[in-house]
Amino acid sequence: RALPAAVGALCRALPPRARPAPDTLRRARFDRPQASLDFWRLLYALLKQIHGGKWAESDDIDNQIRFVKSALWYHGYGRPELYRLPSDGSAGSRELLLAFSWLLHRLSLLEQLLARNRVKTGDETSVCTCEDDLLNSQKGLTEIVPEYGPEDRVDVRYLQWLNGRLRFQWRSLHAQHQEQCKLLHKIHLFTSGSHMDQTLGHFSVTETDLVRQPENYKQLVQLLESETMQLEAFLEWKQLEPVYWQWMETVLDNMAEEGNPCESQDAHVERSGLPEVTSCCPWAGSLTEHIDRLSRDLMALRDQLQKLVTHRKAAWCEKVKTREEELQKEGFPATARKIQESVELRLQDLTYLCAPRKNRAHGLRRLVLRSKHPVSKSGWGRSVSQEPVSAAGAAEVIGELQVREASLGRELKQLREECRRRLDGIAEGLDGVICVTP
Amino acid sequence: PSPKELEELELLNKALEKALKVRKIILKTPLEAQGATGEKSAAVKSSSKGVACKQRSSHGTAVSASDRGACAAAESQKTPVLSRSALNQQQSVSVGDSAGGKNSVAAGRQLLDAGKKSCGSLGESSRKENAPAEGVLGGSTSPCTVTLQEKGRQLKLPLPYWKAYSRNSRAWERCRLCQTSADAAAARNHFIERIQTTFCSPMPAFSPAEIEEELKVLQDVPSLLSQYVEAETADHPTLQREYESLLTLEGLQTTVSQCLHKLQLLQTAVESQMRLRPDCAGDVGSCSPACVPPRGQTCDGAGVLAVPLLCYSSFQELRDLFALKLQVSMLHQEIALQKVMMAELLPVLESQRYPEASAAQLYRATYTQLCEGGKQFPVLVRDELAD
Fold first, then answer.
1. Domain chopping of chain B, boundaries
2. Which of B76, B93, B210, B334 could bridge B206 with an S-S bond, Cβ 3.0-4.6 Å?
3. Long-range contacts of range A58-63, CB-CB < 8 Å, 24 or more positions apart?
4. Burial level of B258, CB count in 10 A (0-12/13-18/19+)?
């Protein structure tokens, strides 16, 4: 039957680091022993590739299960049976199989993993404005920083010195980046016309070095070849997909027959019994904080706008009252309509910026030097309806970064003003000293 | 030298290493025999900019090995060469260049010459038309190469790589164009619908992933809106302008209330998600994935398979891009630090848990750090009249 072929293709289309044997899925379907454990591990490996962060030890099944449950919740998986599975990984392989299939669809798991793990042959950089993984790496830093007890005195000048050092590092980093830009640009410029892939046009640093020392890059060639095989498995999978989904429905059928409906009601009672512990949960806490800050900001804007509009409207009415006939003669209504249209267009731009953007891909992109003239044909000389490349323009990205920069700058300013207010209050408590602000 | 100076030296070394790396590319070995003979005569003249040396075909790889050796010797020798004065020339290394590799090479040359090492002949001695076949090391070695600038356009990727690359590219393209068959889509959707009926009954309007994604979009809105508002606060000369301004402001009001409404929905979603949250999740900490794409993209799964490029059109654009990325990173970090410092320093001052004598200094330092980003100091004046 086509099912083993489908499952086989599916497995081969997954990245090497998280590639199950086709047997794992079959065993999960029939709830064979050891199946659950293997499946938890599989889900962990897959989700970790999407979420990043430090990988737990392979035998730390407890933490792995916790992570998988969190991740599934995060993406909106709602089957309570899964969350009730034991944390030693001893049961529930069919539930896991269901969750896996749901992820396949929900996250476009195969496509996402392929894109994320794409073999890098170019000079890569990211374009999204998401916060860096600083927060994750900070967890490791607490081990380096000495712990100060409550009795210890820390000199604030140490803090100032550290701050100075940080600034220095930022400046050096900037200098190095600029240097790197110069070198990249040179290589791109000098090798223009050499690359046979015309969508690229020039070599990257890697490729230039490859020309110099091909023997160093055998591994790169191997990676490309194994990725090609993975892609071919993906194509196979797409052919055989229907069989897989039908199979999954039989799993659901089985579970519906066996399962007890009253369990789900218990789940509801259980769940609502938990207090809304937004304070104890860091995720909710930080989001709520974020939402509050944005709300306060917007409400302040709203009030400001309210005043402004009322004032202006009154002034406008005053002006127009006396001149109505005159304006009619001048053809003002027509002008007014035109103005309305142009304002609408302007505001449409704004709402576009305020709405989630579908094509703003995260992840790494290859830097390509391209003159302003658009490339008229695709690299392979075929005419395709859609561009085979997803090319973001640096100018566009710079614009977005500037928006982000302005927004962050504003946030920092607001924080500093809050500090100023509080420190002014403290200053009044200091005897005999007046503070003159710079 | 102080630790700071050592650090600076290290950074300078690194920058130099990089410049030399590019130089090494320039000091390209004669790889393919087919290219070598042709280049021999072509590369005789040293161009006014950059390093150009005649290629000595007879020596083949032997020369290249010694070139590299010579260069390596130069590199290892350069570290002690750097002195305090060399640091002042750091600027020339990182300054944007005008032509080719001139600046980095020139700067490199200066720094090497500062130590008067024999290998400093890289570049200068190439003025000689016919590089004498003297001893390779120790003498004035003119490494034989051709600049990347001259020959870069004629480079060719090695065949094994090119084969693998083009096969790979075609496979990606086929995957991108591959449509989900109607059968597959139907079967899949049917399964998904069924499984979703088994989910907990009132599912919140947004999944945690969606909440975060929506917030990411909204986070820049206040700043944008306030810029628009600022633009409209100026006085307007004409009636038309005033009308336009009024309409804009009203439009902005609508946008603001829409956003506020959205925020309320998101808050509700956060609370209902908390109720569903598996109670083990507290330990995992932030579950935020590293740049997880928004839901919209799942419908367009194959779109993700196109070749992701970032195209820039000029050197300045590239530099601006990098500078801005760094600036955004820095701001993220500054904000995080600001919050932590506020949480730790202000309570100390407010509760006066410090030795009395250092009150003023502590206040001043805290003020500088929290309000001025550590850059400017307030002046504390003793209130003499209090006596």
1. 160-199, 353-386
2. B210
3. A61/A37, A61/A87, A61/A88, A61/A89, A62/A87, A62/A88, A63/B283, A63/B284
4. middle
**A391: which strand partners?**
B309
pLDDT tens-digit profile of A3-27?
999 999 999 999 998 899 999 999 9
Q: Tokens 């209504």 correspond to what residue?
A: A333
Please tell me the distance from the alpha carbon of residue A48 to that of residue A39, in angstroms, as a whole number: 14
Count how many residues are written for chain B.
387
In sequence order, what are the residues at sequence separation of 6 or more whose Cβ sits closer than 8 angstroms to the Cβ of residue A70? B278, B280, B281, B284, B287
pLDDT of residue A323: 79
CB A72 within 8 A of CB B200: no
Give the other-Cβ count within 10 Å of A220's Cβ.
19
How many CB atoms lie under 10 A from the CB of residue A258?
8
Which site among B9, B10, B328, B358 would you substitute to test the A interface, given the most A Cβ atoms closer than 10 Å to its Cβ? B328
- Measured between beta carbons, the chain B residues lying within 8 angstroms of A391 are 309-311
- Per the listing, tokens 């090391």 go with B137
Task: Return all residues near B158 (Cβ < 8 A) that are at least 6 apart.
Answer: A210, A211, A214
Sign of the C-alpha dihedral computed for residues B65, B70, B71 and B72 taken in this order: positive
* Angle B308-B314-B320 from CA coordinates, rounded to 5°: 80
pLDDT at A108 over 50: yes
Residues B125-134 as b or e (16 or more Cβ within 10 Å = b): bbeeeebeee
| Interchain pair B371, A420: CB under 8 A | yes
- How is residue A103 written in tokens? 């992820």
Which tens digit of pLDDT belongs to each residue from B54-96? 333 333 333 333 333 333 333 333 333 333 333 333 333 333 3
The SS3 of residue A248 is: helix
Are residues A75 and B208, on separate chains, in Cβ contact within 8 Å? yes
How many CB atoms sit inside 10 A of residue A2's CB? 14
Strand partners, B380: A435
Q: Is the minimum CB–CB distance between B208 and chain A shorter than 8 Å?
A: yes
Give the Cα separation of A86 and A78 in Å (integer).
17
> Helix (H) and strand (E) counts for chain B?
15, 2
User: To which residue do tokens 């073999």 refer?
Assistant: A119
For residues B335 and A411, the answer to whether their CB atoms sit within 8 Å is yes
Q: Is A401 left (phi over 0), alpha (psi -120 to 50) or beta?
A: alpha
Rg of chain A (C-alpha set): 30
In chain A, where the domains are located = 1-119+234-256, 394-437
- 0.80 exceeded by the pTM? no
The interface pTM score, or ipTM, of the predicted complex is 0.85
